[in-house]
Write a structure and sequence with these properties.
Layout (H helix, E strand, L loop, with lengths): L1 H37 L5 H4 L3 E3 L5 E10 L5 E8 L8 E6 L4 E3 L18 E2 L18 E3 L4 H6 L8
Parallel strand pairs: 1-7
Antiparallel strand pairs: 1-2, 2-3, 3-4, 5-6, 5-7
């Protein structure tokens, strides 16, 4: 008889503790995400396929890969340039430090450049040159100072070297 009451007490305790444990896990996950954003960390998965523009807001390609050194630092950004619907596209590599990261969307051609808000940018080294949106863990787009033809003229990136 005592065994029945003991088993029932253990079951009730388990049912009461499980929701509390789940609640703590969710709070912990939220805290971790908030601190990653506050620390200026980026989700690299969000950078892949990101559009790359030049200083004149012309799309010149999109990011295909980020190449890391063995110490974990990003050395090159591989940009897919040219082609149509992926056919005829070629990959070229540019130094990560030469790419600027912009948090605000590309301004449209109808917006006057004098009235347009100054975009928030981050250099390839990770330093912010203007205020940043703390809620996002990735920039809106990348800017590389070259024309599409100049990118096409770069040597094809060889992933095997």
């Amino acid at each position: 008889m005592l065994t029945k009451y003991l088993a029932a007490a253990v079951m009730c305790s388990a049912l009461c503790v499980a929701p509390a444990m789940a609640q703590n896990t969710t709070k912990s996950d939220t805290t971790t995400a908030q601190s990653a954003s506050a620390m200026g960390l980026w989700q690299t998965s969000k950078l892949i396929n990101m559009n790359v523009y030049n200083a004149q807001n012309e799309k010149i390609g999109d990011i295909k890969e980020l190449m890391l050194k063995k110490d974990g630092n990003i050395e090159f950004v591989v940009i897919g340039v040219g082609g149509f619907l992926g056919i005829g596209e070629r990959d070229v590599a540019v130094k990560f430090s030469e790419v600027k990261w912009v948090d605000e969307p590309v301004s449209s051609s109808t917006t006057s450049s004098t009235n347009a808000p100054r975009p928030t940018t981050t250099t390839g080294t990770g330093s912010t040159t203007a205020r940043s949106d703390a809620k996002r863990t990735y920039p809106d787009h990348a800017v590389y100072n070259a024309t599409k033809d100049q990118l096409k003229a770069l040597p094809q990136f060889d992933y095997n070297k």
